[in-house]
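Suppose you are handed a protein chain with no further information: no name, no annotation, nothing but its sequence. What can you learn? This example shows the usual starting point.
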Amino acid sequence: MGDFVDELRDRYRDWADGLAFTPIHKKALIAVFVVVSIILIAIVSRGHSQPVVEPPPIVVEAPKVMVDVAGGVKSPGVYELPATSRVMDAITAAGGALPGADTSDINLARIVKDGEQVYVDPVAVSQPFIQSGTPVKPVKKKSGPININRATTGELDVLPGIGPVLASRIIDYRKANGPFLSVDDLQKVSGIGSAKFAQLKSKVRV
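A reasonable first move is to predict its three-dimensional structure. Written in structure tokens, the prediction is:
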């Protein structure tokens, strides 16, 4: 360090000799420049020795929903899915529909909701032909209240006060909005008022 300071002093002395200063002023000026040079070199050296610390990456987790997939699927159960998943994604997560399962009454493109159940009818009803050649989907006989989240159009049609039109509206509402959360939600279907609902509520369930 002493040799370095002596070299700086000699250089600044050569430079100061060309200035019109007194010897005292020249010595003071040389001393100032030597000190400033040492400080600057120390600062630069310290700056190069400091490691560059990169901030950790920010991880943003996508929102999730829990969906119960039941019925005619290979692995029924509760699955955690991205919030933007659709019904077909939930069925795929459960291993896909079983051979012969009926998905015709399910809106596969609908976005799932947290806590809902996606039910796949395990048996697709065959469609025999009547004499006119028009396919007819027979009504599956079931005892007890009808599950309005699983019932087909034919099963809903036999309920009191529900004809083919209202049965189709119930299916359409279910496809567009997802499963009914309670029996009372039937009143959200166009055409089912309080009087008609009073006839139905003891004969249906969710």
